[in-house]
Amino acid sequence: MTTPTIDRQIERRLADADVRYTRGRRVVISALAEADGPRSAAELSRVIGESVPLSSLYRSLAVLEEAGVLAPHFSSPGLTRYELAEWLSGHHHHLVCICCGIVQDIEVADGLEQRLQEIVADIAGGVSFSELNHALEIEGHCAGCA
Amino acid sequence: MTTPTIDRQIERRLADADVRYTRGRRVVISALAEADGPRSAAELSRVIGESVPLSSLYRSLAVLEEAGVLAPHFSSPGLTRYELAEWLSGHHHHLVCICCGIVQDIEVADGLEQRLQEIVADIAGGVSFSELNHALEIEGHCAGCA
DNA sequence: TTCCTTGCAAACGATTTGCATTGGA
DNA sequence: TCCAATGCAAATCGTTTGCAAGGAA
Fold it and tell me: How deeply is A90 buried, as exposed, middle or buried, from its count of CB atoms within 10 A (0-12, 13-18, 19+)?
């Protein structure tokens, strides 16, 4: 379930972008808001059911990404997972299970995150590359696969 | 061009795995060794030319990954890039250009890398997740796209 | 000889798109 | 009303696989 707050932020962002917040798109957002990590079209479809056909699901994901509401994530061959953009969900990192492929969000305590920021800034500063964002992925076995 | 050292390590690894180090596979390895970041089958094919058909290229990539010589990398929708495994190329991180999608390796100075390791250990320690590896990706605009 | 490897073409799975229909501001 | 959004089916794209031919031990 999306929180009323997040939903209002999305409504406003989509209105600003002249994009309608339709039933199908609300269903997609709701499913992603309930997930604890990025989800692919197929994974979402499994949760959502027949009420949103795959082609519409893909179109919704594309539109919502374009509008900056969703962010794509790549960690498995041949498929894209999506999650709420960080301005909605907060900055976080990912645990990637090398066994089942599932990706789980982790929030990092402020102190650690700040140290991480410093390191990233140091690294990016040393090369001709303008840093916009950083992503730390930790690979291992999730609780289910251990 | 692969260095003689790396090439000898690969020969040995493949011999141990009962996998032949054929001409086609040498070409793939050589192209990846010359690249400064992970490359997709299509990107490799562009460099290699017609001498290795795509289906063979894909098979080589699969076999070499299976043997632990190559590691896959995911950062663009719908395609897999490969790079030499870290035991051959050394531990490193990636700069991902959000404009053209190209991925570039960066080595991180020992001091920074050690601080990074500590942070990752702290994070992984706080959740039920066994850490095997970590990957830091910095997203931004590469020199060409800036 | 005996497998492993290769090439070509067909098959696949994830995603995209054309087109006619529906729906929301 | 009127254009954006949807649904279906067909098309694309990256990748995989069946099968017959080639190559190395």
Answer: exposed
